Amino acid sequence: MALIEFKNVEKYFGDFHALKNINLEIEEGQVVVLLGPSGSGKSTLIRTINALEKINSGELIVDGRHVDNASNQDLAELRKHVGMVFQHFNLYPHKTVLENVTLAPTKVLKISKAEAEKTAEEYLQYVNMWDKKDSYPGMLSGGQKQRVAIARGLAMHPKLLLFDEPTSALDPETIGDVLEVMQNLAKQGMNMLVVTHEMGFARNVADRIIFMADGEILQDTTDVAGFFDNPTDERAKQFLGKII
Ligand code: ADP
Ligand code: MG
């Protein structure tokens, strides 16, 4: 069974048709990179997966759960298993790094504080942020905040991690550390769907590229090198700056 399945999914914002007949199956163990120009519906698509946006029609099944007609309880359950890393981190500013990482495990998964702190240490070590455990987000660089946000996602032991332009708001010198963490996660088999403009990352790490424009999937391929070297879709060519 696919981990994520979209069947004829449509999404509107008022009259605006944001997702057009999306059909997509993502299997476990795939690192999928979603590319496309600004405004093409990448964030909307990724946000439907944990029901931050509701679809208007079609079917959406994530980890065996029907997101399209889920109860609030089902959605709460789904969100325990699907982590999301945002462009702007969304850390709690008045909580320390350690508190940011232990909050959801203690509140949502109801595990003990001691257990949550053990898990937080493991993942903060993993992203090389344990030495900042007592700092507040305001004292950290963008790249450091994003690594804390990734540790916070991992502490929930998610089945799937969604990344929406995780490095777009970062200073160039801090991007590399974040991409390195993501690359390590990919190597370790984490299921990841990543929206990014980091083409080097996409080329090196993706098992599959999905290219969107104007709310449609125009190309969907596991020939990642081929996509970059010889894109078949005209919009993809333009996007990659390969107009001949
Ligand atoms: P991308 O992430 O590819 O840049 P988005 O998914 O954010 O694109 O947006 C796709 C289109 O949907 C854009 O034209 C955007 O203006 C529109 N859109 C996104 N969210 C909303 C919203 N909440 N209300 C109205 N329009 C929206
Ligand atoms: Mg976006």
UniProtKB/TrEMBL annotation:
Q: Which domain of life is it from?
A: Bacteria
CDD domains, per the entry:
ABC_HisP_GlnQ (cd03262)
Q: What parts of the sequence cross the membrane? A: none
> GO molecular function terms here?
ABC-type amino acid transporter activity; ATP binding; ATP hydrolysis activity
Q: Which UniProt keywords apply?
A: ATP-binding, Nucleotide-binding, Transport
Q: Does the keyword Nucleotide-binding apply?
A: yes
Pfam families in the cross-refs: ABC_tran
**PROSITE patterns from the entry?**
ABC_TRANSPORTER_1, ABC_TRANSPORTER_2
InterPro entries per record: AAA+_ATPase, ABC_ATPase_HisP-typ, ABC_transporter-like_ATP-bd, ABC_transporter-like_CS, MetN_ABC_transporter-like, P-loop_NTPase
Q: Which residues form the ABC transporter domain?
A: 4-239
Please tell me whether the keyword ATP-binding is annotated for this protein. Answer: yes
Which family does the record claim for this protein? Belongs to the ABC transporter superfamily.
Name it: ABC transporter
- Species name: Floricoccus tropicus
